[in-house]
Amino acid sequence: MVVGLGNDKFVADSLGPCVLEQIKTCDKLITFEPNVFGVTGINSVDAIKAITKLTQPDTVIIIDSLVSATPSRIGTNYQICTSGITPGSGIGRNNQTINQKLLGVPVLAIGVPVCTIMTTVPDRIYHVVPKDIDVVIRDCATMIAKSINTLV
User: Fold this and answer.
1) Which of 32, 149, 55, 34 is nearest to 105 (CA)?
2) Domain 2-149, CATH
3) d(CA 53, CA 151)
4) What's the angle, vertex CA 30, arms to CA 5 and CA 51, rounded to 5?
5) What is the number of other CB atoms lying within 10 angstroms of the CB of residue 13?
6) pLDDT higher at 112 or 93
7) Cβ–Cβ contacts within 10 Å for residue 65, how many?
8) Closest Cα partner for 34 from 90, 85, 92, 104?
9) What does R_g of the chain's alpha carbons equal in angstroms?
């Protein structure tokens, strides 16, 4: 199962949904887009747990937009890990980590930094994205989707 985290109405947070648009689903590969709490009223972690229990996939691949402290990493680095991912942690949310312990199946998390943080006086925090973020998201989503599509 491939899960696309994020909000397709906010370009910098749309990496997950953009990847799902390009995934070739079949009996071996299903996709799920939980969207965000602000849109659905449902915590995405809870939705992913429920769908995983219902569909019983062998593995869950989760894609999400990331925040980086280093602006030069935007759109140029791909983070791939098996330790899971914590949705919203880049913007200060304290959600559960989606990992193998939580879902009961192996989890592969894929993320790409798409914004950076700028702190100003008096302690205001801004998330800054490049002006061509739509191109960055499109290109990164295509790379990830093509890679996943080769697996089936």
Assistant:
1) 55
2) 3.40.50.1450
3) 23
4) 65
5) 23
6) 112
7) 28
8) 85
9) 15
Cα–Cα separations (whole angstroms), residue 83 to 51, 67, 80: 20, 18, 9
The pLDDT tens digits for 27-56 are 889 999 998 767 788 889 999 999 999 999
Nearest to 18 by CA among 115, 130, 117, 110: 110
State the Cα–Cα distance between residues 3 and 12, nearest whole angstrom.
Answer: 17
pLDDT at 120 over 90: no
For the chain, the domains span 2-149
Element holding 15 (H helix, E strand): helix 15-21
Q: What's the pLDDT at 67?
A: 92
Q: Is the pLDDT of residue 17 over 70?
A: yes
107-120 and 79-81 beta bridge pairing: antiparallel
Quickly count: other Cβ atoms within 10 Å of residue 147's Cβ. Answer: 14
